[in-house]
Q: What sequence folds into this?
């Protein structure tokens, strides 16, 4: 028994939250920080001449870096956690969905998988925006972590002209931790 409805149709297909607009344009300093942090030695990310030798106009950002440009930052994370503690629901579908799951005790979260299709390379100076849609909410599932619901977000990362850069499916599991026997 889950104690939670299993019809999440009202959320499916809804804009999850307002579009996230990058606070900063794509830039070489952040690209360099990223590639050093993950020890990626591909020269097209940091060496102008190497990038041009491959036919590119200059350095590019690593494709998997797309989400870093639109991250809201730790301050926003803390704000969201405080709103959740207060029981405040922001006026967008993802916040309402998380509130429903919280109220039913599904307060733990783990990212389970991500699928990304890289449509265009991201270059310095690009201003990235991400549009989020709630693509699916699963029926309740028993997992090794506990009983929960998988939430799939569809994300479209676009440039300042609205041209698609990356198409992503990001899936999380919101769950009640399994009881451990001593």
A:
């Amino acid at each position: 028994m889950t104690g939670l409805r299993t019809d999440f149709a009202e959320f499916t297909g809804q804009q999850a939250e307002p579009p996230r607009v990058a606070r900063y344009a794509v830039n070489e300093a952040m690209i360099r920080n990223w590639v050093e942090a993950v020890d990626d030695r591909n020269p097209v990310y940091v060496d102008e001449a190497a990038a041009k030798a491959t036919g590119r106009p200059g350095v590019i950002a690593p494709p998997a870096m797309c989400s870093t440009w639109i991250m809201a930052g730790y301050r926003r994370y803390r704000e969201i956690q405080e709103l959740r503690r207060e029981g405040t629901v922001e006026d967008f579908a993802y916040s309402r969905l998380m509130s429903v799951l919280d109220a039913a005790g599904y307060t733990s979260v783990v990212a389970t998988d991500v699928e990304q299709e890289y449509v265009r390379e991201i270059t310095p100076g690009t201003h990235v925006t991400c549009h989020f849609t709630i693509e699916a909410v699963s029926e309740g599932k028993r997992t090794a972590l506990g009983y929960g619901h998988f939430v799939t977000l569809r994300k479209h990362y676009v440039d300042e002209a609205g041209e698609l850069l990356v198409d992503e499916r990001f899936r999380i599991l919101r769950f009640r931790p399994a009881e451990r026997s001593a």
User: Anything to note?
Assistant: The chain has a mean pLDDT of 92. The chain is about 20% helix and 30% strand. Residues 31 and 61 are 6 Å apart (CA to CA).
